[in-house]
Amino acid sequence: MAIPLSQEINALIQQLNRGQFEAVIQRARPLVAQHPREFILHHLLALAFDQQQAYPQAAEAYQHALNLNPKVPELWFNYAIVKTHLNDLVAAEQAYAQAIALNPQFFEAHGNLGTILQKQGRLDEAVASYQRGLRIQPQDARGHFNLGTVLRDQGDLQAAVQSYERAIDLFPNYTDAYNNLGETWRDQGDMTRAVNCYQQALQRNPQHAAANYNMGEFLYLAKRFEEAIPYFETSQLEDWQARVLYCLYRAEQFEVFKQRRDAMLAQGPHTAPFIATLSTHYSINHGEPDPYQFCPDGFSFVYHRSLPELAPGSPLLTQLLNDIAQADIAERKQARLTHGKQSAGNLFKRAEASFRALGEIVKREFRSYHEHYKHADCALITHFPSALEFTSSWYVKMQTGGHLDAHIHEIGWISGAVYLAMPKTEDEKEGAFEYGTHGDQYPQLHDRFPTRYIKPAIGDIVLFPSSLFHRTIPFQADAERICIAFDLKPATPTGFTRSDY
């Protein structure tokens, strides 16, 4: 005797509530085949696939359910989350819009829509979406947190601080908000407040990855290298292994450094620019071949050309200079910069058309860079990313006496700058871009670390491996030097979970 469909559905609901997702899938599939017009079966199957992170199958099941019953806002909401996991941001945006159209008070949908817009760099729209959600539910701590992240991207650091603080007021154990608040204070140069925030996060969650990483970064910048190592090792975040190597090297623990570097060589392709910097410096210091093959001869991979769109007097150049002068962007404190200002936030994510246009030009030049060096046999090229994102982009304005000490961009793959204003100098080197293999007070056993330089003209772009040290040579001319700098790195998957909101 066949079991009634209603009993089958009740059994599936019970299994779903018990977390027996594979059992639900195995039981629901034949039922869906027998009853293809039964909405609840498709919905239960979608939820089970979703919980197992089988997102393509979940999306298909949600779509079948929506075809049968398109009037359920929560269904559109869940479908949007799955499409975000699949990096289909257009479909996700449309699904959130459908959920909101069906239920305009659905504040979680407004919030998640904001994250989709933010991921696409549509920051003004993201702010508006977050604010709509907060007007509906002003006690939503996650909404205030998300608003803080987009305000920080826009360079409005003080407003970001207020949003993070409001999130913490509403949820005092909000470790992510403490951490991000600390990063925002750090961007403003207030390390006392920044460290206090990291410590507040770690008191609540000693394993918090980002707070551990940020504490490690603070300690190594304070030259407390051995204290920093346990924080990086606890974080296991991003380039933590490179940060540990950095601390060992700066502490002049050369033997331990070499042992740990050599252990990493067998772990896979040599695709960490920061480790490449350290390995090259160690090898030059000790007169040994460099075994790390990210880009052993970085000098040969410096790309310099003129951009016709930025010729002197061109509309885009004029607009960029005007937007830099007029845009309300906070300053980010930069200890290596003398007689100058560096912007906070991420310029290429801002709404100004000039910054967006320049970002597209830079991406074009990045593709040209790859084409130019495509036959090179090193990880920089053989593992060249097919999709990239700007980890950051910022302007640097310098006045008379301005210079920037030698450093690297630890989180980049390719770094670069576009030059919008250059001082005229009698000395060819003044104000020039210098690149080399030493900087950042790395320990030197001798001074045989080579350097080269480029004197860019207005409208030039320079791209180079992020493993190279670089600096601006001081200049004395009574004029401004303005450039927009940036880092490009392999794009990370556009992940999204319900905990994001």
UniProtKB/TrEMBL annotation:
Record's keyword annotation contains Cell membrane: no
Record-linked InterPro entries: CHP02466, HAT, TMTC_O-mannosyl-trnsfr, TPR-like_helical_dom_sf, TPR_rpt
Record key words, sorted: TPR repeat
TPR repeat intervals: 39-72, 73-106, 107-140, 141-174, 175-208
Protein known as: Tetratricopeptide repeat protein
The organism of origin for this protein: Methylophilus glucosoxydans
Organism taxonomic ancestry: Bacteria, Pseudomonadati, Pseudomonadota, Betaproteobacteria, Nitrosomonadales
